[in-house]
Design a protein that fits this description.
Blueprint: H1 10-21, H2 30-42, E1 48-52, H3 58-70, E2 75-78, H4 98-108, E3 114-117, H5 121-124, E4 132-137, H6 143-153, E5 157-165, H7 173-184, E6 189-195, E7 198-203
Parallel strand pairs: 1-2, 1-4, 2-3, 4-5
Antiparallel strand pairs: 5-7, 6-7
């Protein structure tokens, strides 16, 4: 990735972040978690880490551990924590993941490093003005949901920031379609790749035009 500079202690910090997160429920495995941590720590753009879709906090804990160490400010967690949907199969019979989410943040000792929004992305986007260094989209995996999440928050990506979608190479239409149509086909993004099911790209709007 262009301009990526990892801190010298990144491996040790990432080891601690995964240790905090690995036993929590969620679909993010160790290799994907480490890749996400690399994107968070190495993105050269200023701003916050914004996570859309937190479930019980597996990726939140990992990202907040990294943000705490490198002074990125609080991780902005956006999730209504509502009952199950077609793209939330792990919810099962549960009415909400919110209490487990808060408990897991407390247990990891990073609660004060997470800005929690128990809301939908469209509600949090109202009045949003802060730059974003990493936009992690792992919420509603329908096309309409993934498209809305991207459209609402991508205008705030800092130069050099990273946008990353979970489950782009999985069974859901939304993440892969938005990644291809709105990221890979856009002149506003440069280096891009897949890591397991994560699709990511760097925001480089000033590199040139067609």
């Amino acid at each position: 990735m262009s301009d990526l500079r990892l801190p010298a202690d990144f491996e040790a910090v990432m080891d601690d972040a995964w240790q905090n997160a690995h036993d929590l429920p969620g679909y993010l495995g160790e290799l994907e978690s480490r890749a996400l941590g690399l994107l968070a720590a190495g993105a050269p753009g200023p701003g916050l880490i914004v996570e859309i879709g937190s479930f019980k906090g597996k990726s939140t804990v990992s990202l907040a551990s990294i943000a705490r160490r490198y002074g990125f400010g609080p991780v902005v967690s956006i999730d209504p924590h509502t009952a199950s949907s077609v793209t939330d199969p792990m919810m099962g019979w549960e009415g909400s993941s919110f209490e487990d989410f808060r408990k897991n943040l407390r247990s990891a000792g990073i609660e004060q490093h997470v800005e929690v929004h128990r809301a939908r992305s469209r509600d949090v986007a109202v009045g949003w003005s802060r730059p974003i260094r990493l936009l992690w989209i792992d919420g509603d995996h329908t096309y309409t949901g993934a498209k809305e999440d991207f459209d609402l928050f991508s205008p705030y990506l800092a130069d050099g920031a990273i946008v990353a979608f979970h489950d782009t190479l999985y069974e859901f239409e939304g993440p892969i379609r938005v990644f291809v149509e709105d990221v890979l086909r856009s002149d506003h993004f440069g280096p891009a790749a897949f890591f397991h099911t994560i699709g990511w790209a760097q925001h480089r709007p000033h590199d040139g035009t067609r």
